[in-house]
Design a protein that fits this description.
- This protein is globular.
- The chain is an alpha/beta fold.
- It has two domains: 184 residues, FAD/NAD(P)-binding domain (3-Layer(bba) Sandwich), CATH 3.50.50.60; 142 residues, D-Amino Acid Oxidase, Chain A, domain 2, CATH 3.30.9.10.
- The protein is 24% helix and 27% strand.
- Strand 21 and strand 22 form a beta hairpin.
- The structure holds flavin-adenine dinucleotide.
- The site of flavin-adenine dinucleotide has 40 residues, from helix 1, strand 15 and strand 20.
Length: 392
């Protein structure tokens, strides 16, 4: 039996980052069912940071995470956590008002953006079929994230502060008695007064183990495809390119092009795989919206993105059990917004005030609460249409 001040379940970016924050003030044990950290969603992302991505509260958490990613604490990492990428958002004529709204919101948050015509956007990405679009917005500060370095930095600092990651430690039972949680795993039994549920696609399963009622935070699969770029093209400087309608995105990825058809299929928590129909759709979108020809798919994968019905964060004390802290519903923002989300979750676990910079962005205990109506209502399972995360 090992005791700690905090048990964190899951060693993706959510678990590693909150463990890092909590280890400043107490002993933290992170329990991970796989043999290494980051095996599931965290290791399968497109690894970009855009302040224009995701619903309102998540995109503000991205803004609040930017300083950490750009200027991490001393000795956190030997390599930069982010490098310049730039993002291009493409709008059809009927979507131009939406694009202008996004630009205004970004400027309010201090981001640099440039609105331009689709034709002029060819200077950022020369393979676009500009005739498919009317206008474009370029977000200069979009970055590629070195997810491995970020995860490794959190876990290295955790160890240096006396915390511990235990792998091959699937939490199979989780009970609460008196003031103590007991987590039973194949690697031993662990006790602490506070549990943080950072299990990604499995968060609902962990809540069920803890005897808590259903919370509507569920996984959806997304497919990614990598192909060889046109011979001789200087792809390294191309931006991450999205359409405002959210039917595709593509970006340079280690000398090749990664594309996603931004699929969002409900899934059980699992080792997600690429869906063959979605691979075909991704290739079709490339042919339709660019002049590139996909000759050879070199790699493809699937990953889970976990959402509450409103797509906003699920961070805070469970309404029925305040010593059970949720850090969930990361959707497509978990890596880029993880640093601020972790500080927010740690404030709830420690009974502290919400960090001032996060509160200043309009984030409250209520609007991210696991007790809000759409999260506690088992019927509210449809993705919300109308957010940036919505898809055709
Ligand atoms: C194709 C794709 C592209 C994406 N692109 C981006 C992007 O560009 N930028 C971005 O910010 N985000 C992106 N995302 C989203 C991002 O990957 C997720 O938001 C983030 O990784 C979620 O992290 P997590 O720690 O919550 O989940 P995970 O990384 O899945 O971690 C959860 C962990 O919990 C563990 N676990 C589960 N059950 C148990 C148990 N019983 N006991 C112990 N451990 C358990 C799992 O093994 C897992 O390691 C993308 C996702 C996909 C699929």
């Amino acid at each position: 039996m090992e005791t700690a001040d905090f048990i964190v379940i899951g060693a993706g970016i959510a678990g590693a980052s909150v463990a890092y924050e909590l280890s400043l003030g107490g002993k933290v044990v992170v329990l991970e069912m796989e043999s290494s950290a980051g095996y599931h969603s965290t290791g399968r992302s497109a690894a970009v940071m855009s302040e224009n991505y995701g619903p309102a509260l998540w995109s503000r958490l991205v803004t609040a995470s930017r300083a950490f990613l750009e200027t991490p604490p001393e000795r956190f990492t030997d390599v930069p956590l982010v490098t310049s990428r730039g993002a291009l958002f493409l709008a059809k004529s009927e979507e131009q008002a939406q694009l202008t709204e996004q630009a205004e919101e970004l400027v309010r948050r201090g981001a640099s953006v440039e609105l331009t015509t689709a034709d002029e956007a060819l200077r950022f990405c020369p393979v676009l079929r500009a005739s498919e679009f009317a206008s474009a917005m370029y977000e200069q500060d979009c970055k590629d994230i070195d997810t491995d370095a970020l995860l490794a930095g959190y876990l290295k600092a955790l160890r240096a502060r006396g915390g511990r990651l235990v792998t091959d430690a699937k939490v199979e039972a989780l009970t609460h008695s008196g003031e103590t949680w007991t987590a039973t795993t194949p690697r031993g039994v662990f006790q602490a007064p506070i549990v943080v549920n950072a299990a990604g696609g499995w968060v609902q399963e962990i809540a069920a183990l803890a005897g808590l009622p259903y919370r509507n935070v569920v996984p959806f699969r997304r497919t990614a495809v990598v192909f060889d770029p046109p011979v001789g093209s200087a792809i390294h400087s191309w931006p991450m390119t999205f359409d405002v309608a959210e039917t595709f995105y593509f970006k340079p990825e280690a000398g090749r092009i990664m594309v996603s058809p931004v699929d969002m299929a409900p899934s059980d928590p699992c080792d997600a795989q690429a869906d063959e129909l979605e691979v075909a759709i991704a290739i079709d979108r490339i042919h339709r919206f660019t002049t590139m020809e996909v000759q050879r798919v070199t790699h493809k994968w699937g990953g889970l993105r976990t959402f509450a019905p409103d797509h906003e964060p699920v961070i805070g004390r469970d309404p029925e059990q305040p010593s059970f802290i949720w850090l969930a519903g990361q959707g497509g923002n978990g890596v880029m917004g993880g640093a601020a989300a972790a500080r927010l979750a740690a404030s709830f676990a420690q009974g502290a005030a919400i960090p001032a910079d996060i509160a200043a962005l309009g984030i409250t205990a209520e609007n991210v609460s696991p007790g809000r109506a759409c999260v506690v209502d088992p019927a509210a399972d449809a993705p919300v249409v109308g957010t940036l995360e919505a898809f055709e």
